[in-house]
Design goal:
175 residues; mainly beta; Jelly Rolls; two-stranded antiparallel ribbon; 3 helices
Length: 175
């Protein structure tokens, strides 16, 4: 009898579930302003440079102004117009590691289309500039810039493939 009484008291304390629940307050999951859209040019001294990298670059120290590239370094950039642009790449082949590899061929691609292949017969600090045909580019969309380097230096200590040092690359006005 006593257990029936306890059971009855417990049942009286229960209330039916509501027929519906209110929609919870909706909040944005963003913790700050929207990031700036990608530009047409990346400088590895810029804190946002990792946003541009697709493949083929080794990590660097936060205050480093350049990045080591592997065999096929690739970045993505965006342009608002397709005409009157050129590709510019500032890079270096260090004397100690790359001089024995000379000549070195660098093939420059925009969206998988070959822009030019250049044979370099010297090491040191170099720059490449070449006008880009408008049909190679897409407006307001990611454009991939890829470099293919051959031969590349393979570090004896750890086997890491190092093709070149890149300080900046991208599309700029062809002036």
């Amino acid at each position: 009898m006593r257990s029936c009484l306890v059971f009855a008291v417990l049942l009286c304390g229960c209330t039916p579930l509501p027929d519906s629940y209110p929609v919870p307050e909706q909040r944005s999951s963003k913790d700050g302003p929207d990031p700036e859209p990608l530009g047409a040019f990346v400088s590895f001294s810029d804190a946002r440079s990792p946003d541009y990298v697709v493949d083929g670059f080794l990590p660097s120290a936060p205050d480093q102004l350049w990045r080591w590239a592997s065999a096929r370094p690739t970045v993505r950039v965006r342009v608002s117009r397709k005409t009157g642009l050129r590709l510019r790449v500032n890079f270096a082949f260090p004397d100690d590691s790359h001089k024995p590899l000379l000549p070195i061929t660098v093939s420059y691609f925009i969206n998988d289309r070959l822009l030019e292949a250049v044979v370099y017969k010297q090491s040191g600090v170099l720059e490449f500039r070449k006008a880009v045909p408008p049909e190679f580019l897409a407006e307001d969309a990611d454009n991939l810039i890829r470099l293919e380097v051959s031969p590349i230096y393979i570090a004896k200590a750890d086997g890491v493939k190092l093709s070149m040092i890149v300080s900046e690359l991208g599309l700029e006005r062809n002036e």
